[in-house]
Amino acid sequence: MEEFEALLNESLEMDTPDEGSVVKGKVIAIEAGQAIIDVGYKMEGRVDLKEFANPGEAPDLSVGDEVEVFLRSAENARGEAVISREMARREEAWDRLEKAYADDARVEGAIFGRVKGGFTVDLGGAVAFLPGSQVDVRPVRDAGPLMGLKQPFQILKMDRRRGNIVVSRRAILEESRAEQRAEVIGNLTEGQAVDGVVKNITEYGAFVDLGGVDGLLHVTDMAWRRVNHPSEILSIGETVKVQVIKINKDTHRISLGMKQLQEDPWDLVAAKYPLESVHMGRVTNITDYGAFVELEPGVEGLVHVSEMSWTKKNVHPGKIVSTSQEVEVMVLEIDGAKRRVSLGLKQTMRNPWEVFAETHPEGTEVEGEVKNITEFGLFVGLDGDIDGMVHLSDLSWDERGEDAIQNYRKGDMVQAVVTEVDVEKERISLSVKALGGDKFAEAVGGVKRGSVITVQVTAIEDGGIEVEYEGMKSFIRRSDLSRDRAEQRPERFSVGDKVDVRVTNVDSKTRRLGLSIKAREIAEEKEAVQQYGSSDSGASLGDILGAALKGDDD
Q1: Read out DSSP for 386-429?
Q2: Lowest mean pLDDT among 70-74, 205-209, 312-316
Q3: S1 motif domain spans which residues (predicted)?
């Protein structure tokens, strides 16, 4: 009895573990999917085997193993201790994770589930949240290959009281990538040729992986020729040889080029394309100010809009040529420093004004359509897609130009005579009134000022008489009808009368003859006085004229 009492007292005096603490135990049996664990103090408890397994793995537990468990309660209804391996692992994990968070150290875990906005990660007993944006440096479409894989994570935030942990896989990758980038960049030099894999293609270029670090291959550095889109010559996953053009040590940005590894076609441009030589090319681009023509891959020239056509002046280049069209051009200028070639399209064709001048000398009759009517004349379409102009003054002999132009409409066909061709100024002057020749010039060809001609009276008016000479009308004013004022009466003449008159003026512009009967009489008197006497000799004018007339009769 004394021994039993001593053992009882010893048992009562022993410190039993506190509920809610982690205790050590020993696996004494495994049955029905559970492990029976002796935690000492005459206490045993049961734990499901799944609590001893990592996510996605089978439990690794044997009889005799020592394990730590969480004592939730010392005794349940069956007299067994209520213990949990999972809760013990969680407590252990939180202690470990808090230390790692404080030291800014990496922790190991495995992604085992998908939740809204991200994934769940087992950090060796504690469950953390991995946001979708923190999985990788680029968006991940399929996270299947990452599930259950043990890998390092960085703790971004944790709150033990609320049981919240947020981790990042991306931070680990970026850190590793930065180290790798620094190492790769340290081994690269400007001008070095390296192999890379095309990872991404954009409008302005392509990103090439050089083995852990990306470089930008700009579209303008892909080829010497014009490249409209990088996809024309590159595809994702393709291995290409590139040259390192520039390395920015601060930002770790690398500029790459492909054309730099090829021969520069501009080195031979001056020799291959001498000035005024003619070549075939392909139109690659059309702008408001002209068209770009590719002479060979990498060598383009500009045909300015002013050099595209002899006749089409104010039209868009797209109305003259089209993209991909093969055209013949002439080299006008080469600027090797600026890598520019000026080309001409119209220079490969003859100047239509020169051709017209050769085939239509002055005096040639032409026919064309009225293209335009302006306040100063008509524009007539001629051979060679050029226009000639008929000035108002060249429309009619008899009508004022302003009146004569009213007889024409756009689209009318007219005949005219070429009067002048100015090739330099690109002007052609035409005349409609010159078609039948100059009737006035023909009629008065031998008539000069002072000549006496015979005219026929065609009309009697109060101010004088209208007369006609060789089809040309003229008007003799009342004051010129006679030397004698009493005889200056228009009514003393009749239509059809023939009268001798003296020409006082020949006006080619107004196409009029100045005529006078009075001037003729004065001239006759003067001539008679000179021949037969003077007024001072005492002879009367009648005597003198009588003698003159008698002399004429003899």
Answers
A1: EEEEEEGGGS-SSS-HHHHGGG--TT-EEEEEEEEEETTTTEEE
A2: 70-74
A3: 20-86, 104-170, 191-259, 276-346, 363-433, 450-518
Q: Name 457's Cβ contacts closer than 8 Å, sequence gap at least 6.
A: 465, 466, 467, 493, 494, 495, 496, 497, 498, 499
pTM confidence score: 0.45
Q: Determine which helix (DSSP H) or strand (DSSP E) holds 80, and give its type and residue range.
A: none
Q: Judging by beta carbons within 10 Å of its beta carbon (0-12, 13-18, 19+), is residue 43 exposed, middle or buried? A: buried
Distances (CA, A) of 252 to 188, 211, 460: 11, 14, 108
The Cα-based distances of 151 to 106, 116, 448 in angstroms read: 10, 22, 121
CA distance 468 to 176: 114
Mode of pairing for the β-strands spanning 340-344 and 512-516: unpaired
Please tell me which residue, 174 or 360, carries the higher pLDDT value: 360
Q: What is the mean pLDDT of residues 283-299?
A: 90
Residues in the chain: 554
- Tell me 508's DSSP state: T
One-letter amino acid identity for 492?
R
**Rounded average pLDDT over 305-326:** 88
What confidence score (pLDDT) does residue 331 get? 92
At residue 284's C-alpha, the angle toward residues 240 and 218, to 5°, is 30
Question: CA gyration radius for the chain?
Answer: 58
Q: What is the phi/psi pair of residue 329, to 5°?
A: -130, 160
Does 292 score more than 90 pLDDT?
Answer: yes
Does the pLDDT of residue 50 top 90, yes or no?
A: no
Q: For the residues 426-434, what does the mean pLDDT come to?
A: 87
Domains along the sequence of the chain with CATH:
1-86 (2.40.50.140), 104-174 (2.40.50.140), 188-261 (2.40.50.140), 265-344 (2.40.50.140), 352-431 (2.40.50.140), 439-532 (2.40.50.140)
C-beta neighbour count of 377 within 10 angstroms:
20
3-state SS assignment for residue 349: coil
Please report, rounded to a whole number, the percentage of residues in the chain having pLDDT higher than 90.
Answer: 17
Q: What is the mean pLDDT of the chain?
A: 82
Helices of type H across 111-245: 170-186
DSSP letter for each residue of 353-374:
HHHHHHHS-TT-EEEEEEEEEE
Residues 6+ apart with CB under 8 A from 339: 266
